[in-house]
């Protein structure tokens, strides 16, 4: 039997998450200022749309703080007690962020439905002016996270929330214009319901994906069968078992597997090198741990059937 373990640390460093500390700091400061503006004018003119959006933007501040905390925690070094470090903190932050948004939008929808039964007069020009500020603040914040939105679920959550808020503010501007044009007092709660609907639709995917990763689900974009076939296609590999792929964090994918070598056995180092290259190049799997087994040992391996120790 030949048993060899390999941990590809080099690729981990090559794919370290980008720094977004400045983006988080600026985004949080801008949104706190905007929450104050929205809350003041929403209270002054009795606009549910502005008050509700102020509450939502306050939850966005909390979401940005969570996302920032998750990103910072994920960069803490591994220790003897936490051998993977705190990379999963970014997944947890994305999940909590999604839950907070869904709860906030549920509350908003309930309040808007009640307000529809007794619409109140509001000031369209003030709503439009404040919403224009929201477009600028949320749009600028979203742009700061755009470059990291593809490869990191935590950063994508921050980007989607800010981009969605910019679109929602645009909707408020349109609603205010319709109110001034037609005098529809019910437009304010209707726009609130539209806000809630847009945000729930945008957040649901983040909620499902972060929950999936919390339970060690295979990350989106990784086809487990394709990974298995890629390993089986390597020269000298006769079989693959105990294959697992999961997310260590929102931007790090890990894999473990047992590779059974053909008989006569090839050079194990060459097989490992091919496997690591394929997994990195084709699937962006950077943290790889492989166990090399001879055909004889593979028959006795307690993990061959995926049921755990014999």
What does this 3D model show about the protein?
- With 310 residues, the chain is α+β, with helices and mostly antiparallel strands.
- The two termini are 18 Å apart.
- The longest helix has 30 residues, at 153-182.
- Helix content is 64%, strand content 10%.
- A four-stranded mixed beta sheet has the order 1-4-3-2.
- The chain is built from ten helices and four strands; from the N terminus they run E-H-H-H-H-H-H-H-H-E-E-H-E-H.
- It has two domains: 18-214, Alpha-lytic protease prodomain-like; 219-300, Cation efflux protein, cytoplasmic domain (Alpha-Beta Plaits), CATH 3.30.70.
- Strand 2 (237-247) and strand 3 form a beta hairpin.
- How many DSSP H or I helices? 10
The number of distinct β-strands equals: 4
The Cα radius of gyration reads 25 Å
Question: What overall form do the CA principal axes indicate?
Answer: elongated
User: Low-confidence stretches at least 5 residues in length (pLDDT < 50)?
Assistant: 1-17
CATH class categorisation of the largest domain: Mainly Alpha
CATH-wise, what's the superfamily of the largest domain? Cation efflux protein transmembrane domain
What is the second-level CATH architecture of the largest domain? Up-down Bundle
Question: How many distinct folded domains?
Answer: 2
Percent helix range:
55-70%
Walk across the major sheet and give the strand order. 1-4-3-2
Terminal CA distance: 18 Å
Alpha-beta classification = alpha+beta
Averaged pLDDT, please? 79
Q: What is the ordering of alpha helices and beta strands?
A: EHHHHHHHHEEHEH
> Which range does the strand content fall in?
5-15%
Which fold name is given in CATH as the topology of the largest domain?
Answer: Alpha-lytic protease prodomain-like
* Major beta-sheet overview: 4 strands, mixed
